[in-house]
Amino acid sequence: MQQYRIKIGWVIICLLAGISCKDLYNPPITSKDYNYLVVEGFIDNGTAPTHIRLTRTRRLGLEARIVPEFKAKVAVVGEGNESYALTEGSEGDYFATLTLDNAKKYSLQIKTADGNEYRSAAVSLKKAPPIDSVYWQKNQEGVQIYLTTHDPQNNTKYYRWEYEETWEYHMYDTSFFEFKPNLLKVVPRDTPLVNVCWRTLLSNQILLGSTEKFTTDLIHAFPLVKIVEDSDDAWKLGALYSILVKQYAFNKEAFAYWLNMKKNTEQLGTIFDPQPTEIKGNITCINNPTETVIGYISAGTSSSQRIFVKVPRWNYRIPCSDSTERRLKQLEMFLPKDTIGPFIEPYVPMREVKRGGEVIGYQSADYICADCRAYKGEPRKPSYWP
C-alpha cells in the first residue's frame, strides 16, 4: 500500500510539472486587410422604406471596425431594366420608398465611388404574413417579450425578425439653466428640458424561425427580448418602453445564408460549437467576379407590430438616485457666480441662488445626474409616443 501511494505521488508530481512547463502559444493572425464590401438590407415593397447599408470589413485590431461606404450609386432594377434610385443618408445608409410589381423579379445594383459595380441575383417578391401578436410576460427574472405568427396559406416557412427598442427615462434632477460658452454666462435653458429623454436601439441579433418540418406554418411564443429586473438594462422599463418588430419572409436559400451567418457570429466559443463556414451570398462584383462580397439581398413586403410596455412595481436604478452618489453630488451643489466660466464643466446649473435679490451662484449637479443626453438619448418625444 505504501509503495502504491508513493507511485501515485510521483504521477501527480509529474503531471504538475508537465502543466507548469507549458508555454503560452499565440497563433499567428493574418495582418492583411481584405476590405470586403458588406451589403445589408432588404428590398421592401410597400410603405416601409427600403434601407440598404454599405460598409467595408476591417482587419482585427484596427480602431474603426465599421467603415461606411460613401458616395455609392445604389438602385433597385427590375426585369424590364426599370430602375429605382436610392438616396444616400449618413454612415453608408441608402433609402427609398418603393412600389414594385409583385409579378416581377428585382435585383440590387451598386456602383461604388472607386468605379466597381456590384449586382445581386434577381429575386422574387415574397410577402410576409401579418404578425399575430407581440406580447410580454413578467417572471421571476424580469420581463420576456414574445412573438406569435402564422401563415394560413402555409407558404412562408422561413422567417426573420428585427426589432427596434425605444424607452423613456427620467433624470433624478431637473436643470432649468445652461451655460453658453460663446456668451460666457448662464442663461435659462431652452425647451425641451433635459430631464426626460427617449433612446432608441436597433436589434443586434439574427432572429430566425422555420416551420419547414411542421404540418402548420405557425411559430408560437418565439422569445425576442429579455430584460432582467434590477440589471443594467432594467432602466429601459423604468417609465415607458416600446418595441417595434419587423417580420420578413425568406426563401430557403436566403434562410440558409442567414443561418450560417448566425452560426458564425453568435454560436462560436468552444470546439463543440459549429465551426466557421464560408458565407456565400447572392451579390457579385461585375468587374471582378472572384472578389468576395458579403451579403444576401431578398425582396418582398415586410409586416410589423409595435407594443408599449409598462411594468408595475419594477425594480430599476435611476442614475444618481442612491444615497452615496447623492451625498457626493450635494457636496458640490453650489457654484459661485464668478466661477461659472472657468469651472462649470462637468457641472450643470440647476437653479439660481440669490442673496438680497441678487444672483450669487447656482445650485449645480454633475451632468450625469441632470442631463439625460449623457445616456445617448434625445429630449424630444417621438411622434408615435403616447
UniProtKB/TrEMBL annotation:
This is DUF4249 domain-containing protein. It comes from Chitinophaga defluvii. It comes from the Bacteria. It holds the Pfam family DUF4249. InterPro entries: DUF4249.
